[in-house]
Amino acid sequence: MFRVTRRYAFSASHRLNSALLAPEENRRLYGKCNNPYGHGHNYLVEVSARGPLDPYTQRTIDTDALDRLVAREVLAQLDHRNLNTEVAAFEHAVPTSENLAGEICRRLKRQWRAVFPGEWPCLEKIRIAETARNIFEVTADEIE
Fold first, then answer.
1. What's the rounded Cα separation, in Å, for the pair 115 and 65?
2. CA 26, CA 34: separation in Å to the nearest integer?
3. C-beta separation of 68 from 76 below 8 A
4. For a tag on the chain, would you pick the N or C end, based on fewer CB atoms within 10 A?
5. Pairwise CA distance, residues 37 & 50, whole Å
6. Which one of the listed residues 14, 73, 105, 130 is annotated catalytic?
7. Shortest CA distance to 139 belongs to which of 47, 9, 1?
8. Is 33 designated active site?
9. Measured between alpha carbons, how far is residue 17 from residues 35, 123, 137 in Å?
10. DSSP secondary-structure letter at 75?
11. Domains of the chain
12. Does the pTM of the predicted model rise above 0.90?
């Protein structure tokens, strides 16, 4: 069994602010990330798939097909966007990097079998680096 990971980059802005919390609590909880004007990140996203070596291609995954899927479902939808106001998934959810990783995973899972029919490869995990120190990871089986 092999794991193949591809890395992608995009830039987006967000504000961490929960409508369920008072302004003072948002400021206390999210600190500078609660700036009313938002702030941006240059995100690095890693998409990992797992599977056996295909006897015909001698590869685990068609990386060109994966690149097209990520370009369509992730990059075109999130790059240079304000996550709070331009991405429907964050209309009622705080666009934390945990939630962003989950949303990227959901987007890929919805289209995965259309691009990769059959048992293999499987989407395994999403890893997103918001900064050099803040890295978040979610496995695909944890996300519906």
1. 7
2. 7
3. no
4. C
5. 40
6. 130
7. 47
8. yes
9. 9, 30, 22
10. I
11. 2-142 (3.30.479.10)
12. yes
- Contact between 143 and 106 (Cβ < 8 Å): yes
32 phi/psi in degrees, rounded to 5:
-65, -20
Q: From CA 135, how far away is CA 137, in angstroms rounded?
A: 7
**C-alpha radius of gyration, the chain, whole number:** 17
Tens-place pLDDT, residues 60-108? 999 999 999 999 999 999 999 999 999 999 999 999 999 999 999 999 9
Q: Which residue has the tokens 């369509």?
A: 72
The answer to whether 80 is a known catalytic residue is yes
Q: Are strands 2-14 and 81-82 parallel, antiparallel or unpaired?
A: parallel
Q: Which position among 33, 41, 73, 103 bears the catalytic label? A: 33
From 25, 80, 86, 142, active-site residue: 80
With tokens 């900064």, the residue in question is 131
CA-nearest of 134, 141, 110, 138 to 126 is: 138
